[in-house]
Design goal:
Layout (H helix, E strand, L loop, with lengths): L1 H5 L8 H15 L2 H10 L5 H23 L5 E3 L3 H12 L4 H20 L2 H8 L2 H22 L3 E4 L3 E4 L5 H18 L5 H12 L36 H28 L12 H18 L4 E3 L3 H6 L5 H14 L3 H4 L4 H15 L11 H17 L2 H18 L8 H15 L1
Antiparallel strand pairs: 1-4, 2-3
Amino acid sequence: MLDKFFSLTKNKTTVKTEIIAGITTFMTMAYILAVNPDILGAAGMDKSAVFTATALSAVIATMVMALVARLPFALAPGMGLNAFFAFTVVIGMHYSWQFALTAVFIEGIIFILLTAFNVRELIVNSIPINMKHAVSAGIGLFIAFIGLQNAGIIVNSDATLVHLGNMGSPTVLIALGGILLTGVLLVLRVKGALLIGIIVATLAGIPFGVTKLPENMSLISLPPSMEPVFFKFDFSRVFTLDMAIVLFTFLFVDMFDTVGTLVGVSSKADMLTKEGKVPRVKQALFADAIGTTFGAIFGTSTVTTYVESAAGVAEGGKTGLTAFTAACLFAIALFFAPVFTMIPSAATAPALVLVGLFMLSPIKKIDLDDFTEAIPAFLTIIMMPLTYSIADGIVFGMLSYVVLKVLSGKFKDISITMVVIALLFIIKFLI
């Protein structure tokens, strides 16, 4: 039954491969169960309630991805978007977290409508094939950079922006050891290499204090109540300029983060059609729209497709069974919160760094001889890690693509959709 529903044989995969891929995807993004409540807690929200909202929104959105889109991508409240929610809208602009949740809820409704009328699908399909390959490579550098930062191998610097961290710290040593171990397992073609690396690094971190064991050794507990944040909306300021600005930012970042992840990971997995399109992209976009809407109702920030899904794809995940496995693990995590939240960033960093390598492979398919294709592709790749944003990388790539094609007289290479998107990007910069 699983083979028929998820087309496992057709996609040249197996149940075992898909389950391992799903576990790997979940393990690389399980940190969100600890990080999201911490970030939204800074906005005054109940952390325990946000934990439950985070897990449940991930379950619903990822399950839609698994059963409707049947693609190997997992979803959860997005990093960056949660920081904008807490530190900009609430702390910076002095609005209540209820106001911010209302903006997220409206965003979800708008995305459902845009997806229903094929607007988001049109945007995905309008991205040129060379740009799609560039998005994959850019995401690779981006998530490798995230992994290196999470492990403390790369740290902030006032003088040079970034520099090497303390190479003698336990966190760094655990991460570097995890990279070497996982690398050896990959060379030996051991199935589940990324997952094994995460588990071993987590266990190795215990005696060094890198892996924090839960204070309450009762590892199984009922999920905390969502009541403090459930359906807490404030519609009194819906028709204000501030709401419009906040809503536009949420819409913009979420749309192009999701588009970038879907395109980039699909390119890496060789899932793009002959026309360069993401299969069942409309259903995939519905997943994050539904996830965002329900997430806001539950009490969490914008839900988006996770770039860490690339870790599962790297393990061979090709179908919705990978996403289904990840969704089930998020459901289980509701009752085993202490176990999943103790996985340190030093343990997931090796997987992110090596997946970054895997994501680079589509760069070989980019036409580097045509500079109207090569320059936008390069800007897309380099700007993602440098701006710490998938969306901003796409902005630079798409804008340069349209400008170079126009100035070179290659008008046939530009679609009306591309021109409209470029104009929207310019408006975004001005705002």
